[in-house]
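Quick log. Single chain, no ligands specified.
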Amino acid sequence: MWQELIVALIVIAAVLQACRKFLPAALRQRMVYALARKGFDQDRLAKLFRVQSDCGSGCGSCGSCETTPAPIDTSSDGGTKRRVIMLEVQR
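-> predicted structure:
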C-alpha cells in the first residue's frame, strides 16, 4: 500500500516536470487559468508551471514580446558589416 502511494507521488511529480518543460507556454497558461477557475491559487500555479499569472496583459513582465535589436558591426572603413545567409536549394 505504501509502495503504491510513493510510486503515485513520483509519477505525479514526473508528469508535472514534463508539463513544465515540454508543453508550450500558451497551453501551460490555459491550464493555469482552468485550474484557477476551479479554485486553485493562480499565483502558485503560475510559479509551478513557469508562466506569469498576468501574461498577455501587455505589462512586459513575462518577456514573451521582448525583442532585442540585431547587433551592428562596423568595419574599419566606417560601413556596416553585412551578414550573408547561405541558402541551400533542394529540388
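Residues 32 and 45 are 6 Å apart (CA to CA).
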